Amino acid sequence: MSKFAVRVSEKRGGWCAEITRQVTSRKTVVSKRETGFESEELAKAWGEQELAGFIKNQTERNSRKSAQRKARNAE
After folding, report:
1. In DSSP terms, which residues pair with 71 in a beta bridge?
2. Which of 9, 17, 25, 69 can bridge 43 by disulfide, Cβ–Cβ 3.0-4.6 Å?
3. Nearest C-alpha neighbor of 40 from the set 15, 20, 21
4. How far apart are CA 56 and CA 49, in angstroms?
5. Strand order from edge to edge, sheet including 14-22
6. pLDDT tens per residue across span 17-41
7. 37 and 14 in contact (C-beta within 8 Å)?
8. CA 62 – CA 14 distance, rounded (Å)
9. Residue range 61-73, pLDDT digits in tens
10. What is the reported pLDDT for 29?
11. What pLDDT score does 56 carry?
């Protein structure tokens, strides 16, 4: 199971897509949310597209932070 997932739900006559992150085995947190989709398919498509970009940004951020950490510890 991956750490991130897309959750789609119906809210107030529209559809909502959320990117969730599993923090612990019992706790999940919404990292990004978009509402107002007219259909479940549109919401799911947005979620899958955003999830790919979100994971890419996270890996880039992690590598930057790792390099900063290595430079800081080397001093």
Report:
1. none
2. 17
3. 15
4. 11
5. 4-11, 14-22, 28-37
6. 999 999 999 999 999 999 999 999 9
7. yes
8. 35
9. 999 999 999 999 9
10. 95
11. 93
